[in-house]
## 1
Amino acid sequence: MYLCGVFRCRTPMIVCVISVLMILPGGAHGASAQVKNRKVSKIAGKEPPTTELDVEERELRESATRLRAIMQAIHTYHKAAGHFPTAHAGLGYDKKKGKWYRHRSHLSWRVLLLPFLGERELFDKFRMMESWDSEHNKKLISQMPDVYRTPGSDATEGMTNYLGVVGPNAGFSVRKPITVIDISDGTVETIMLVEAPDKWAVEWTRPRDFPANTENPNKKLASLRKGGFLTAFGDGSAAVISEDIPPDALNGLIIRDDRAILDDVEKWIHRVPPTAKPR
């Protein structure tokens, strides 16, 4: 560790700049040896050895950062539209008729979020009145933004592992949009997004997500991360849910308005602290 300080000498009109080296165990010789070894590694074209655990931890944190960015965009969308995005972009509200409607074309909510993720130019390329796999729109699948790419995933190009939890009482609705008020269980205890295994990955523009009524969801979601699966809650936080969480407890986190009392549920949840912005 180095500490630089600036000291004024007693001699008038003379300023001395002194760099002070705080010597750690190993002394100056140990510090210079570390620098030398680092230089040798660079010359040899080698990076310091990285363990498998280091890679897994980095991928987990990067993925959690991307989920938080998506949740931030979802909340920004809520501020602009007055509600959360629906699972299908084909759902809208007819003010004149005073009712919700659904047209035949469908795009994922992931497309709706593009302007709130700094991807307005890509958003404008989509033809919103056409389906995700129309001749025009399917050409844009390969332009998936990095925020939808899952670190550590082997999914093919244009596929994302980030799925919304969809159902009548889940964070994403297919019937009509919901607001933050509809999450009566509290956003901090309601799962909105899941990081699914590669076998669940979908084209990012396709309106297909994770059904809230999936049987044994913890077993189906666990595999990409050791010991559990990554999620994003309605408050924007990211967490790893243990694969051993009881089904009733997990269902309580998925349903937004069952008012279930979740005793000791936090012991199954490992909150991932925020780090850097998504790469």
## 2
Amino acid sequence: MSSKAGMKQHANPGGQSRSSPYAGGIEVHDAYAAGKRTIVSVDNVVREYRVGGDSIFALRGVSVKIYAGEYLSIMGPSGSGKSTLFNMIGGLDTPTSGTVSVQGVTLAQLSRVEQARLRNRCIGYIFQSYNLVPVMTARQNVALPMLLGGMDVDEANEKAGELLKAVELGHRMDHRPEELSGGQQQRVAIARSFANDPVIILADEPTGNLDTKTGEAIIDRLSHLSRERGVTIISATHDHKMLAVSDRVVTIRDGLVDKVELRDQLNIQLGSIGDAGGSH
């Protein structure tokens, strides 16, 4: 089945075909997709690993379209294929079959150098472990992607300062990572992800190493910057707090799209989660 919503269920390798994953029916999702520009297209992607004489399928035929300016969360249990799909979108892994396109460019058709240029120009990354350079200050860490992209040093430092002020770290620009809290380090990482004015931010478990209060602050800051700058956020996460700011959530299970939910549907379920007791 093909639709504007851009996700099809395929007969999957090593398993049975599944019913539609669209919560509320395909028509609801077609209405959501109407008029939106596709920025990432994943079409029938399979990722097979060979272990000895056995085939292990991390992805079994996943198709999804991601739209410009939306906040999409990819969720799923450990081993579901969530991280593999995330890496495919970022060009960090290659499909066994199927295609991944970013802004209309099929990643597999690019050389490694061309893929690296596209990532530097179009995609910002936020990692669970921050991945800051320990000997550099916050300003230097944020300026680094701009310098690698060929920007003048003074211009890069000035822009880095503006981005750090946007995440409320204007007073910590000259501090190294060891002098910053976990939440402050993640805010530096957020500022760095916006350095080259990307169209897409890939956030890999961005609250995974943070306490609940700090995690909520990071989610709010990331959501605010996304809306303010019109950037597409794609987050791989286990954190249910992400649901409150997500336009859609795609749940991956056993290498397949198990469920696709819109924000309104998520709000109802978030209420039931909260009522069921406990924060997540």
